[in-house]
Amino acid sequence: MTKRVNPKSTRKPSAAPKGRGALSMELSLARRMPGEWETHKATWIAWPHHEPDWPGKLAPIPWVYAEIVRALSEHERVEILCHDETVSENARTLMGAHGVKEGSYRLHPVSSDRVWLRDSAPTGVIRADGQVELVNWGFNGWAKYDNYKRDAEIGRAIERLTGLPRIVPVRPDNGEPLILEGGGIEVNGAGRMLVTEEWLLTDVQVRNPGMTAGDYEKAFAEYLGVTETIWLGEGAVGDDTHGHVDDIARFSDRDTVILAYEQDPADKNHERSVDNLRRLKAAAKKRPLKIIMIPFPRPVIMTGERLPASYANFYIANGVVLVPTFNDPKDRVALNGIAEAFPRRTVVGIHAVDLVWGLGTLHCLTQQQPAGKPTGK
After folding, report:
1. Can you point out the beta strands (E) in the chain?
2. Pick the residue with more confidence: 263 or 28?
3. What's the maximum distance between 2 C-alpha atoms anywhere in the chain?
4. CATH of domain 31-370
5. Which residue in the list 334, 350, 364, 371 is annotated as catalytic?
6. What pLDDT is stored for residue 373 in this prediction?
7. pLDDT at residue 26 tops 50
8. Residue 364 designated active-site
9. What is the pTM of this model?
10. Chain segment 80-116, per-residue pLDDT in tens
11. 3-class SS of residue 213
12. How far apart are CA 66 and CA 54, in angstroms?
């Protein structure tokens, strides 16, 4: 894999609908993507094995994963995809070293190209009958990398392992497979969704050529139960996916958004933060929305490349929130802000300076399996 050239994008003028607000329809009776804070049956991850994702630095990454599993497994079962038997043995050994109880996780022999299950694994939704369903988006390596064929089959593997029904979404405009990734999708479980124009409505790393904002909103309504799409502008600087929302803005409950906001006007994230805050405030005028701001960490640079380090890439599990930390004084500020948003959950920091060299952290590597019925925060 050739790493990591991010060309400049051109955002199409009037890309997102102006002043449309909520769609004129009831909350989908067919499917609903629950908020991440709703009860999980399990968390899915894939054990790291692809050295080019962490050039020259793969060795410490499995140890970070073992710590992630230790923190998660105290609250819910962890399902782990292992590329081959060598990877399985490495996972078992390191989790044993970290004191992870064997019964709290399961290893599954499933090959993969990379480990970013937020994007390659299916999205769990709840149907009107209470059944969990796997929405298996098409995956094309973020419209950037060629080696993704095994990742594109992960949905089938999870269907086989869970026994859950799986659907393959299609584009509303032409019936072709719909290419999306979970890291670009953020919902409140009650019809509201955050997404960025940079991800879906610009001319770089185009997932679905020709699709409009209106087309996407039809798909969000059909497959996720979304009735209001809040279009933010750009994602974080250094984001290899070109605009995933999970590095900048996250719901913490149905009416609260945590926004990563860069205060320094000299930082490239500042202008993006100002624009995204403006858009959220505009949405809040139509329907109540509390906005909690947390900082970005200092720029994390490796070999001259700025990495997408963000505290917003936290993961919400049963009873715990895992937050990436970066050896930065702002770690404490971010942890306190996130803890304020989740008063009934333990907030745990996970060291992510090495992890983010792979261009993703905690939310990027996890995918929740909903329990099958809605619950409170």
Report:
1. 31-32, 40-46, 77-82, 105-109, 123-127, 132-135, 166-167, 186-187, 192-196, 228-232, 249-253, 256-260, 290-294, 301-302, 305-306, 315-317, 320-325, 346-351, 367-370
2. 263
3. 55
4. 3.75.10.10
5. 364
6. 63
7. no
8. yes
9. 0.92
10. 999 999 999 999 999 999 999 999 999 999 999 999 9
11. helix
12. 17
